[in-house]
Amino acid sequence: MIAALLAGVERRVRRAVAARRAADPGPDDPHRGLYLTPEMVEAVLDDPVRIPGPDTTDGDPPPLPAFAGPLGLTALDVEILLIALAPDLDARFERLYGYLNDDVTRRRPTIGLALELCGVPPFAAAGRARFTATEPLCANGLLVVQEPERPLLTRTVRVPDRVTAYLLGDPAPDPLLRGVATIGTGTAAGRTEGADRVARALRAGVRLCYLRQPGGSGAEPAEAALAETGHGAVLVDLVALAEADEPLAVVSALGREAGLRGAGLVAGPAEALADPRRHGLLRTLTGHAARVPVLLHGDRPWHPDWPGATPLRVTTAPAVLTDRARIWREAVRDTGFPVSELDTAAVTAALGPYTLNPARLAESARAAAGFALLDGGTLTAAHLRDGVRAQNGAGLARLARRVEPAVGWPDLVLPGEQLDQLRELVLRARHRERVLGAWRMRPGGGRGTGVLALFAGESGTGKTMSAEVVAAELGLDLYVVDLATVVDKYVGETEKNLDRIFTEAAGVNGLLLFDEADALFGKRTEVKDSHDRNANLESAFLLQRMESFDGVAVLTTNLRANLDDAFTRRLDVVVDFPVPGADERLALWDRCLGPGLPRASDVDLAFLAKSFELAGGSIRACAVTAAYLAAEADRPASMADLVAAVRREYRKLGRLLLDSEFGEWLEE
């Protein structure tokens, strides 16, 4: 079709050249070397190799390109575009345009020449208006008007290389979009109720929508809505756009790419442009809605202060687990790594504890494939978990201590009831999307989907280790909140620090541990002075913030009675850790000494377990002390080392030492 359209341009150029030749000055002009002679023009026109075949059609002109209608191009716009495009398709037109411009150095068409070739008088306002920045040709980035310092009629015009490439059938997106945008698959795989609502709005003529998906991105339902209405999608990462070297040029290229493809723009997260310094980008981006559908998405409500036209706002439910499993498997398959060992059911189960938007889900899949490739084996659920944890940013690590879990269920020595409660905490975190999301077992009130637990018990009874075991079972990192980074003597600063922690935790797949939580979650008291009022404000803020939390958090305390009853009501699981009995202490001594520490033949663990009432943390400390004593003596750990370690631990704890407790191991 391009060849047929170009033939029409050539006919106009031939007529224009003939008209110029009729009034051409004589060949004795001393300055003729600066431009083409008629004979040279004739030679170019008669070139049998480079001249397209003559136009033999006398009927209707060829149809307009497919993108002309969606972009609002008129027949005159298309003629102007082809005239500007001709030198990029056939170099002869450069020389011909130089002749028609009466200047061999100006080898592109000018506005005046383009109007002349189209048969439009140069003083016609409607014709001149086609070259302004607000009309479709320039507004869509299809035509560039150069040399703004010259009079309008002598300004040259050109077609950007990307437009030329697209018209010639090149499917690759504009190089300017690399790292910022990708071309969607054109499927309706993410079809949901929210996607159907957006599709109805698009059919009704709405061109600017904002899809809010709490805990997600909204990109999939937006792409599905476009596919349902016959549009492709250009998927835009607004975080990458905000960091681009020339973001305004990229935004312009986005509108052009979407217009050429007959696609819509799916851009998010919108909050990436919430900074007032980025409002110009947001305004330009939403301005494309005058020509192509623009579907923004994010997980926050649309702020009324954000610039541009107010979009139609739609809240859509997050992608269900089966959809997330499909996205994960497709992303792995795109890397070329086989996923046959992990079926959809296995991936669905493994993804249960995590909250990931489609973009981060795909990144985690690629990371998992990389980990499996390094191991030289099959892709497993462990690789999936490693890939998810690799997506955790460093924001929360600045506010809490990150711990990679290194213990499991066999390392816990607890009664059966407490173990069952810990397993209940795991299953709540694993199945919360189904129970709280699909089954709506926690409706209304703006409450989040978080899982909150309290571990109460004396120091050293295994509360922190149990949190680490739960995190390991769920495939999460453990983040231990440092109270020194939270509590602040200035009014309001503690609340700000806590809000910062909860906000960062919402974007991280980790387990948040508040150790010694009674320091923060204490009981509210009667207000007698400003200190009481501020303490009550902190507690009230925590109550509200925990209510909307979507992650997994564990509170530990040695003094459960000090916690406010309102906190207890919001907890999903409460585990009371008892002081270990003799049987548990025997198992703890054996575990703490471990298989690596050499033991002397006189070591009597049964005596130690029966005689000394110590918690697990103290037993661990005794084992480490005995190991140091054995290392200094360069021999296996003996009973004397262990008894000496117990004596030190008793003194550290401030407990009374009775000689009778040490039996035959009493030191002389």
From TrEMBL:
InterPro entries registered for this protein in UniProt: 26S_Proteasome_ATPase (IPR050221), AAA+_ATPase (IPR003593), ATPase_AAA_core (IPR003959), P-loop_NTPase (IPR027417), WHD (IPR054472)
Keywords for the protein's UniProt record, in alphabetical order: ATP-binding, Nucleotide-binding
Domain AAA+ ATPase: 449-581
Superkingdom, taxonomy of origin: Bacteria
Keyword Nucleotide-binding: yes
Gene3D superfamilies: P-loop containing nucleotide triphosphate hydrolases
Keyword Nucleotide-binding: yes
GO molecular function (one): ATP binding
Family: Belongs to the AAA ATPase family.
Name used for this protein in its record: ATP-binding protein
Lineage of producing organism: Bacteria, Bacillati, Actinomycetota, Actinomycetes, Pseudonocardiales
